Amino acid sequence: MPEAPLDLNTLGEFTGHNPAQTLRLARHFAETARKTLVEIKTARDSSDLGTLNRLGHKLKSSAAMAGARECASLCIQLEKAPDLTAAFDLVARLEPVVGGISTYVQSLGEQPAGG
Question: Which backbone phi and psi does 103 adopt, to 5 degrees?
């Protein structure tokens, strides 16, 4: 079974493992990631490496907090991307990861699995 795109146990540490609050935090992270991805794509379309680096830094922290390991890893790389070619590749890899997080959180329904 593939690893979940975010770790509900990590999120649960912030909520005292309250299932409803953990789900709320997961939803908040998924929305933050989606909105930040829109900003990242705008910066990509403008070929703005500085903004891409800054947005990688911005999303990295919340991804790490949510236990979204793959997202956090890509954001660390985006934050440090030395040129637009590398940044564009990372954005292309980040898009399906953020999509997977959104899909996963939507699949949780009203209560997180194992909550």
Answer: -60, -45
CB atoms within 10 A of CB 7: 15
Cα–Cα distance for residue pair 16/38, rounded to 1 Å: 31
- Which residue in 25, 50, 38, 45 sits closest to 88, CA to CA? 45
What tokens does 11 get? Answer: 């999120």
Instruction: Identify residue 37 by its one-letter amino acid code.
Output: L
pLDDT tier, 115 (very low <50, low <70, confident <90, very high otherwise): very low
Using an 8 Å Cβ cutoff, are 71 and 59 in contact? yes
pLDDT digits (tens, 9 = 90+) for 14-67: 999 999 999 999 999 999 999 999 999 999 999 999 999 999 999 999 999 999
SS3 4: coil
Residues 101, 33: contact at Cβ < 8 Å? yes
Amino acid at 26: A
Q: How many other C-beta atoms lie within 10 A of the C-beta of residue 87?
A: 26
Residue whose entry in the numeric block shows the structure tokens 């909520």: 15
